[in-house]
Design goal:
There is one protein chain. By secondary structure, this protein is mainly alpha-helical. It starts with a strand and ends in a 5-residue tail after the last helix. Helix content is 49%, strand content 11%. The protein has a two-stranded antiparallel sheet. It contains 2 helices and 2 strands. β1 and β2 form a beta hairpin.
Length: 70
């Protein structure tokens, strides 16, 4: 699959280095899916949400690299 990345066309598999399952598991352990505490500050919620978003994205890339459905 060729993707238009800016003015360049790249193979989809060239966009990411191989992602190890151990990395995904560790990040998922550090940043699990959870609801924020009522007393959490907005900034902390945004930071955690951003970190969790990266974990989800890496899970998706890992699944694609290993031809797995999510």
């Amino acid at each position: 699959v060729k993707l238009n990345y800016g003015n360049q066309f790249m193979n989809e598999e060239d966009l990411w280095p191989p992602i190890e399952e151990a990395l995904i598991k560790k990040l998922d352990e550090i940043y699990p899916e959870k609801c924020p505490e009522l007393e959490a500050k907005d900034r902390d919620i945004w930071h955690y949400g951003g970190a969790r978003s990266v974990v989800r994205m890496l899970m998706s890339v890992y699944a694609d690299q290993n031809n797995q459905g999510i």
